[in-house]
Amino acid sequence: MSPNDAFRALDRQECLRLLAKVPVGRVVYTRQALPAVLPINFSLDTDASVLLCTSPDSDLVHAIDGVVVAFEADEFDAATRSGWSVVVTGRATVLTDPAEHERLSQTGPSSWMPLRDAVFVRIESEMVTGRELRGALGT
């Protein structure tokens, strides 16, 4: 196997299938003009957008509402040197519709942190890219 055979680009459907398997990803955004990365639990909505549940007072909500962000999730096995990584890029929006909030309260993600008044954030899956690394043992 040549070194380039170890990497494989993933199509959109495969990326979304893999995202649905993991509970935690990372939001990549700008905070005070600097790059910031925050791990957060998430779920996928029926339209393939990424859903987050967080506090309405969080710095994250204020920093990402209405702007384009990236969301990344992955799974790797160091022993086999294999795994995958998926990045979703799109506009983040705090959801304010009461019916949508009620629906997501039942079916969407729940924060791993205790929250009094949770808000949901949707990241549109405008661009979805991913790649897989197939075990490249021995060099």
Automatic annotation (TrEMBL):
Pfam families: Pyridox_ox_2. Gene3D superfamilies: Electron Transport, Fmn-binding Protein, Chain A. It comes from the Bacteria. This is Pyridoxamine 5'-phosphate oxidase. It comes from Streptomyces atratus. The lineage of its organism: Bacteria, Bacillati, Actinomycetota, Actinomycetes, Kitasatosporales.
